[in-house]
Specification:
Layout lengths: L4 E6 L3 H12 L1 H8 L3 E7 L15 E3 L2 H6 L5 E4 L6 H12 L3 E4 L2 H18 L3 E2 L10 H8 L5 E7 L2 H13 L3 H10 L8 H4 L2 H15 L9 E2 L7 H9 L2 E12 L2 E12 L11 E8 L3 E8 L3 H16 L26 E11 L4 H11 L4 E7 L2 H6 L8 E8 L2 E2 H13 L8 E5 L3
Parallel strand pairs: 1-2, 1-4, 2-3, 4-5, 5-6, 8-10, 10-17
Antiparallel strand pairs: 7-9, 7-11, 9-10, 11-12, 13-15, 13-16, 13-17, 14-15
The structure holds NADP nicotinamide-adenine-dinucleotide phosphate.
The site of NADP nicotinamide-adenine-dinucleotide phosphate has 24 residues, from helix 1.
């Protein structure tokens, strides 16, 4: 058998410790499959005294991950520290500079610096692999890079953040508020102490930027992703969505449109019958629409130590077997500069919930403004609170009531202009809730 592949693991937290565990557990099967053994020879973390439940005897310890990256007894550095800059980036750059392969689960690093790192890896003749950086244990990067060359991808969309999906699932089924579900997610360890990154959509945006590049053969463009989080979703929106035949999910969507490539992350209404609507709790899912395969949906664990480590080990095994591919499926110079489609040019259906004054003529005023913007309404529903209805059965109390509109496909710019006019007319008492509808 060939000389073993020597691994240096930088970061021994949730994922790093699980990688060390799996490499040991699958030791024999991996060497049979790859034609050589895979051995962890070096590790790095901050606290040497911490019990991580893994056997590190005979493994060299580095306090500094850059030292590990440059160490002579390491062929492949597995970066599991996290963060788009700082020690993670330093270690990855040092590893590539020292002509070592790199495997990482770090979506922030790849979304921001993936192109430059891939270029550097290419120049040094080493591999950069990041399967675990998008959708954790789901092999979506491999699928896009290796399984679909006979396809032109038209659209890719997914639930890429388990914390948000958990919160929205509980809000829907238990009628709870966003704040209550977030507190539970934190208590159960699904959400970070600072959940901003997850609930405001940035984590999804990083993953989407990576997947967009692989789906369309374009340079990563994380700056181009339009991002909206889930904090403003109210239980009433989930209830209304249900009554109208939809569910609300935080989706990352990448689509080739007439105006260019759209990348957007926002709460989205999806038909209840769609595959993605069935995905509940912390589970992730990605649907790929492509010309030959039509629709392909991958569903599975998007996070968790062992599930994420499963994807990391797959990359390590490719390197050991010398079967790793170019990071973005083709040499960096052959990636296209994708044309950005501005969000204002987005076209689709919309759910709009307006809080209007309960008085005659309001619904007609709203409908007129929509018609002026060439926006066709599929339905218009007025939801009065039970108290308002009891106090004034004729609907003239002037109290705030919800008016829900579902539009046919319309341009984002037209919707925004119509809503501005409605606000100027004094018809609404609160900012409108706008949720885009994703077609099947
Ligand atoms: N957790 C998941 O489910 C998941 C899923 C997909 C992707 N990822 C990605 O995987 C990566 C790791 O995530 P994680 O959840 O395993 O993080 P984690 O549990 O916080 O572990 C981070 C590790 O990095 C070490 N570390 C931090 N700063 C360091 C430094 N300056 N030098 C050396 N070591 C340092 C820490 O050392 P100490 O242990 O000594 O503090 C710890 O072992 C991140 O990029 C994350 O986005 C995670």
């Amino acid at each position: 058998m060939n000389a073993s592949l020597r691994i240096g693991v930088a970061g021994l937290g949730t994922v790093g410790a699980a990688v060390v565990r799996i490499l040991k557990r699958q030791d024999n099967a991996l060497s049979q499959r790859c034609g050589r053994a895979i051995r962890v020879t070096a590790v790095s973390a901050r606290d040497r005294g911490r019990n991580r439940g893994i056997d590190l005897s005979g493994v060299r310890w580095f306090d500094d991950p850059v030292g590990l990256a440059r160490s002579d007894d390491v062929d492949c550095v597995v970066e599991l520290i996290g963060g788009e800059d700082g020690p993670a980036k330093d270690a990855v750059e040092a590893a590539i500079g020292a002509e070592k392969h790199v495997v990482t689960a770090n979506k922030a690093l790849i979304a921001r610096h993936g192109l430059a790192l891939a270029r550097a890896a290419e120049a040094r003749g080493v591999t950069l692999a990041f399967e675990a950086s998008a959708a954790g244990g789901i092999p979506v990067i491999k699928t896009l890079r290796e399984a679909l060359p006979g396809n032109a991808v038209q659209r890719l969309y997914g639930i890429l953040n388990g914390t948000c999906n958990y919160i929205l699932s509980r809000m829907e089924f238990e009628g709870l508020t966003f704040a209550a579900c977030l507190a539970d997610a934190q208590r159960l360890g699904y959400a970070e102490a600072d959940p901003t990154f997850d609930v405001e959509g940035y984590d999804t945006a990083h993953k989407l930027a990576i997947l967009t590049s692989l789906a369309f053969g374009t340079e990563i463009d994380a700056e181009a992703v339009y991002v909206e989080g889930i904090a403003a979703i109210a239980p009433l929106d989930l209830k209304m969505a249900g009554e109208l035949g939809y569910r609300i999910k935080l989706l990352g969507v990448a689509e080739r449109t007439r105006t260019g490539i759209e990348q957007r992350v926002h709460p989205t209404m999806v038909p209840k019958s769609s595959a993605i609507a069935q995905v509940m709790g912390v589970t992730n899912a990605v649907t790929i629409d492509a010309d030959a395969v039509k629709e392909l949906t991958l569903i599975g664990p998007g996070a968790g130590g062992e599930a994420t480590a499963s994807a990391v080990v797959a990359d390590v095994a490719d390197i050991a077997a010398r079967s790793a591919r170019a990071p973005f499926g083709r040499p960096v110079d052959r990636l296209e500069k994708g044309r950005r489609a501005p969000m204002q040019r987005h076209e689709g259906g919309y759910y709009i919930r307006l809080t209007v004054h309960d008085r005659p003529g309001v619904a007609a005023g709203v409908a007129t403004r929509m018609a002026e913007g060439d926006i066709s309404l599929e339905s218009i529903l007025q939801k009065r609170s039970e108290t308002a209805a009891t106090k004034d059965p004729h609907g003239r109390s002037g109290a705030p009531v919800s008016l829900v509109l579902i539009t046919y496909a319309a341009a984002e710019a037209a919707i925004r202009a119509a809503l501005d006019n409605i606000a100027t007319d004094g018809l609404v008492s609160e900012a409108p809730q706008v949720i885009r509808i994703e077609r099947e």
